[in-house]
């Protein structure tokens, strides 16, 4: 980000009590199938929120409703203080969207396309938000400077994905929706993209709602993680909070006298201290494993249904089946 960045910070303007996203009782029915039954959540300025959930859980549907691209069946939705179902162009200029794929304009050159889209945002510049984002700065921010003169149809999948992101950012949005933004990116591009998301949130206070199937990415990028399953948000919090709330325990593994032991406890530090007090030097291969986001995710999705519409109801989670102390 350039030195100009901080001067372009967005301000808390017309939203509801500081909430950029405020969703209550959102429902979506396709035909006779309820995909979203009761989705409720909020997000504040500068927050990065990851929406997780199995295939078909309704993540894209939710995002499209918030973007104003899809009409909801019921519920209250406020995005930047406005109902997206009735939003105008000025509202749209404050919202950035990165769709799952961008396949048009193959004959256009990269810089040319971004500059072209940028012109749409000129009327929506304000004293505090200069729109659009300068094309060369934007190209640099998404790592496309060297391909600026290339035709879009010659870009690789990952390079196109960077262009998707640039298109979402060209209007300097206050709120950015990213639907599976890193699908198809190589590890380096992914790393650079993560740095860009962090910069947008930290320097510009851009609020970001992203969907991903990469739990490590969600844990790394998001201030908050929401899990959508069975038509509802079944978890909302930091990765640590979710792990603590769901699993509530650490797993301690060790060897002693040639045997392997496993113990599940909410107080692993005290347990390990006592273990050493009792067995001292005889303890070997000690390992303390906190519940991971993956454990939490699997437990919650299992407990609240398959994620898709009409999934099974309550079922014992993986975490519920843990034994107390076992040896092998
Ligand atoms: N226009 C539509 N008409 C009917 N059903 C639809 C429509 N769009 C989506 N669905 C259904 O709604 C459900 C949720 O789809 P959605 O794409 O929102 O899920 P998702 O969580 O984004 O999935 P994925 O992780 O696979 O991208 C799916 O069962 C899908 O088949």
Automatic annotation (TrEMBL):
Skewed-composition ranges (Gly residues): 306-316
Domain ABC transporter: 21-255
Region (Disordered): 303-328
Listed GO MF terms: ATP binding; ATP hydrolysis activity
Database matches in Gene3D superfamilies: P-loop containing nucleotide triphosphate hydrolases
Family matches, as InterPro entries: AAA+_ATPase, ABC_transporter-like_ATP-bd, ABC_transporter-like_CS, ABC_transporter_ATP-binding, P-loop_NTPase
Domain of life: Bacteria
Keyword entries, A-Z: Antibiotic resistance, ATP-binding, Nucleotide-binding, Transport
Record-given protein name: Putative Nod factor export ATP-binding protein I
């Amino acid at each position: 980000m350039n030195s100009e960045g901080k001067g372009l910070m967005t301000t808390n303007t017309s939203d509801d009590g500081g909430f950029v996203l405020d969703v209550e009782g959102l429902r979506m029915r396709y035909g006779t199938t309820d995909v979203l039954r009761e989705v409720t959540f909020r997000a504040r300025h500068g927050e990065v929120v990851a929406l997780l959930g199995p295939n078909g859980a309704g993540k894209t549907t939710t995002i499209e409703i918030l973007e104003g691209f899809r009409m909801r069946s019921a519920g209250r939705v406020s995005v930047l203080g406005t109902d997206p179902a009735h939003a105008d162009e000025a509202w749209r200029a404050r919202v950035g969207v990165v769709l799952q794929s961008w396949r048009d304009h193959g004959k256009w050159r990269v810089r040319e396309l971004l500059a072209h889209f940028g012109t749409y945002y000129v009327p929506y510049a304000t004293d505090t938000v200069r729109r659009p984002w300068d094309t060369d700065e934007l190209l640099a921010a998404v790592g496309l400077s060297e391909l600026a003169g290339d035709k879009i149809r010659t870009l690789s999948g990952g390079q196109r994905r960077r262009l998707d992101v640039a298109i979402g950012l060209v209007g300097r949005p206050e709120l950015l929706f990213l639907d599976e933004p890193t699908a198809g990116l190589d590890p380096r591009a992914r790393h650079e993209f993560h740095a860009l998301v962090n910069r947008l949130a930290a320097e510009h206070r851009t609020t970001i709602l992203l969907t991903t199937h990469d739990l490590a990415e969600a844990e790394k990028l998001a201030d908050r993680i929401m899990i959508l399953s069975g038509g509802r948000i079944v978890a909302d919090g930091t990765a640590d909070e979710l792990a603590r709330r769901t699993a509530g325990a650490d797993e301690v593994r060790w060897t002693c006298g040639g045997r392997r032991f496993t113990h599940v406890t909410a107080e692993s530090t005290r347990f390990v201290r006592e273990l050493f007090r009792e067995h001292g030097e005889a303890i070997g291969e000690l390992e303390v494993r906190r519940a991971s986001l993956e454990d939490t995710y699997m437990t919650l999705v299992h407990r609240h249904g398959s994620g898709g519409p009409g999934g099974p109801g309550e079922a014992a989670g993986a975490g519920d089946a843990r034994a107390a102390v076992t040896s092998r």
